[in-house]
Write a structure and sequence with these properties.
Distance between the termini: 14 Å
Number of helices: 6
Helix content: over 70%
Order of helices and strands: HHHHHH
Largest sheet: none
Radius of gyration: 21 Å
Oligomer: single chain
């Protein structure tokens, strides 16, 4: 029962990871467009009284740990006889899930730094704000963090979740 419940959680994790990766890709593209705006493009936008759209997507905890924590605290995780599978489950929940939470936190910190810069420069035009070197550096770093987080999801966390699902299936079908 534990493994079936865990498999369901992992399948939901994979869906959540896919959704988060899509959000990172979308916001990164938008931020890169803002970074690529030239002074003349910003002038044109400002003169036409249009606004530059700054996408907001903060990233929180996306991976479900409730069932794992319940089974771990009850000691039932020790009932998994396949030692390799048990180790992979522990690695996923004790190393990879906290890593995802940490990279999302770092990203959100820089997202809020961008908001702070916008508030600090509320008396300036968008042209001045989006041309400001400090603002651009902050936004560039936000894009770098987004790319890093995509790597963490795509190269580490998602492949392990998919692998665990397959191995749990093997265990359940024995």
């Amino acid at each position: 029962m534990f493994l079936a419940t865990l498999k369901n959680d992992l399948q939901n994790d994979v869906k959540s990871i896919d959704n988060e990766m899509e959000a990172y890709q979308k916001t990164n593209k938008s931020y890169e467009k803002i970074l690529a705006l030239t002074t003349s493009q910003l002038d044109s936008i400002y003169k036409s009284k249009n606004k530059v759209s700054f996408p907001i997507h903060s990233h929180g905890q996306i991976l479900n740990i409730g069932n794992y924590e319940g089974f771990k605290s009850s000691g039932k995780i020790g009932y998994i006889e396949n030692e390799e599978l048990k180790q992979k489950i522990l690695n996923y929940y004790q190393i990879f899930v906290p890593a995802v939470n940490e990279v999302n936190k770092m990203y959100n910190d820089y997202l809020f730094k961008c908001f702070d810069k916008e508030i600090e420069n509320a008396d300036k035009s968008e042209k001045e704000l989006y041309s400001d070197p400090k603002y651009k550096k902050t936004l560039e770093y936000l894009v770098k963090l987004g790319n890093n987080n995509l790597r963490v999801y795509n190269e580490n966390t998602k492949p392990l979740a998919v692998e665990l699902i397959k191995e749990i299936d093997k265990e359940l079908n024995k």
